Amino acid sequence: MTDGPLRIAIVGAGGISRRHRTALLAMPESARLVSVCDASEDAAQALATSVPDPVATFNNHLRMLEAGGFDVAIVALPHVLHFPVAKDFVEAGIPILVEKPLTCTLDETRELRALSRRFKVPVVAGQTQRFNREGFWLRKWVQEAPLGFGALRSFDIHAWQNLPGYLYGTLGLPNGADHWLLDGKRAGGGVVISIAVHQLDLVRFITGLNYAEVMATGQYEAPFYNGAESSAVVLLKMDNGSAGSLHANYLAVRTPYNEAMHLFGEHGTIVQHAEQIGQYHGPLSFSSDGGRPATAWADMYQGFERLPESDLANLSPDPFFNQLDAFVQAIRRGCEPANNIDENFNTMACIQAIYESLSSGRPATVASA
Q1: Are residues 256 and 275 in the same domain?
Q2: pLDDT reported for residue 1
Q3: Same structural domain for residues 120 and 155?
Q4: Chain centroid offset of residue 246 CA
Q5: pLDDT value of position 2
Q6: Model confidence at 313: pLDDT above 80
Q7: How many domains does the chain contain in total?
Q8: How far apart, in whole angstroms, are the C-alpha atoms of residue 263 and residue 146?
Q9: CB 172: neighbour CB atoms within 10 A?
Q10: What is the mean predicted confidence (pLDDT) over 113-129?
Q11: d(Cα 113, Cα 98) in Å, to the nearest integer?
Q12: Are the CB atoms for 262 and 246 separated by under 8 Å?
């Protein structure tokens, strides 16, 4: 490891890699991009030439590993490649940040965790919503102010997108063309593992609770195939006995927003909801009764406010920056990074249980670590 900025390699030069590139450019004293790998040499070259420093390019991650010259790596590939590529980097002693979902199956998560422990190599799951500065503030409020939020009682989360519209419209693929996100084998599933994983994980992060049991039903409509669910509705039970629901849809041909969350506690409520049509998920707001009993019907609507800007100033509004900065600083200090495999395990176990329930039509227990 160099004394200067940490040398970063990125494996996968698709759209999400540009978010990591932007974060890297904002921390030149801490980290810099030195190596890019993608099966498409044009894509690798395009990402490499978008930064001011010289960047080596490769079309095979094993050749990248053989060449070396970097300290840590970011894995931003189609989901089915997360585990085999991450495995190679861990066995080579390279700390890695793996884009969500960490793996496609819980067995892969367990094996990657075992390798991480065996080789003493940190592995981080790229759940960026944990690194939204509003989420940091709310986590502290929920877990450290007992008369602010109190015990979680119930919740609901939404994750809605028109994926075909994005693929065949925004990306310009021929109508009906194949894409790995449509394929359950390459994506690990459908809408739950690809986008609802964000909201499922955010509930855990804010509340400090884990999922214990699920009951799911869903649909498997074209153009999705190989077991990729196009929509799912899930009942979720937490380890404190509270219950919630997830409504996820990848074929929302019209939707007012894409993500929403409502958490109802003993004393307070957290709301993430769009304020206008087309806003992706909107700001987070909160309200609390402070432990005082209600005196009127209208009390339930009172007190909602945005998070105080003064308390957020020490964090970037870009969660990719916050995530990468936390990762880099942890590697520098030689300590365990935030959202390592142990922290991410229950999120992956919940997704596995959802797929078991979708398949069986029965409730499924979320596996323990």
Answers
A1: yes
A2: 64
A3: no
A4: 16
A5: 64
A6: no
A7: 2
A8: 15
A9: 8
A10: 97
A11: 13
A12: no
Measured distance CA(86)–CA(247) in Å, rounded: 31
- What range defines the domain where residue 208 resides? 132-307+347-365
Q: Which whole number is the average pLDDT over 292-298?
A: 93
CB 345, CB 191: distance < 8 Å: no
Based on the domain organization, do 190 and 226 belong to the same domain? yes
Q: Which tens digits make up the pLDDT trace of 49-61? A: 999 989 999 999 9
pTM for this model (two decimals): 0.95
* Angle at the Cα of 214 from the Cα atoms of 209 and 215, rounded to 5 degrees: 155
Token pair recorded at residue 169: 């419209």
Is residue 327 located within the same domain as residue 185? no
> Helix, strand or coil for residue 42?
helix
Residues 244 and 139 in one domain: yes
One domain for residues 174 and 104: no
For residue 307, what is the DSSP state? P
With cut-offs at 50, 70 and 90, classify the pLDDT of residue 315. Answer: confident
Residue 17 within a domain: yes
351, 357 in Cβ contact below 8 A? no
pLDDT band of 312, cuts 50, 70, 90: confident
- Same domain for 18 and 90? yes
In a domain, 142, yes or no: yes
CA angle 310, 316, 320 (to 5 degrees): 150
Residues 286 and 137 in one domain: yes
| 324 has a pLDDT exceeding 70 | yes
